[in-house]
């Protein structure tokens, strides 16, 4: 899967991440962690989840990454979208989100969730703020069994509240 978007400088190419990209992905994510926009990811966690990620390249350089995590049969979460400092506002996030949504559709998902500070960005892409429960009680009971911290954040569990303060819950129907 490759998605291309034009920028003022040159084309952005989005492709599935490979293990050789993981250290560069961590370097892209780290400035957002320092600014408390994204949660830090251990290197081992990124390697374990590499198949969930896409990366954006421009002129052979990695300029962005983002992930799609399946939560349930019809529901996924867009996670860890990060663009290099010089690439912000140049279509990198848009290209990655488009690729992740394409991947979600291919998997049969009909809804995408995100927990974000970037409400304007996601709003421009059709996501809307949600406050209500996104899943019914039976699905919630199943999701409570997941050891994934992101699922706990999705469920808005008390023990992850420090991670989610100030974030907005958003949802898009595909």
TrEMBL record:
UniProt keyword terms in alphabetical order: Acyltransferase, Transferase
One Gene Ontology cellular component annotation held by this UniProt entry: cytoplasm
GO BP term, pick one: L-arginine biosynthetic process
Pfam families in alphabetical order: Acetyltransf_1 (PF00583)
UniProt GO molecular function: L-glutamate N-acetyltransferase activity
N-acetyltransferase domain ranges (all copies): 12-146
Gene3D superfamilies given in the database record: 3.40.630.30
Superkingdom of source: Bacteria
Protein name according to UniProt: N-acetylglutamate synthase
Organism: Agrococcus carbonis
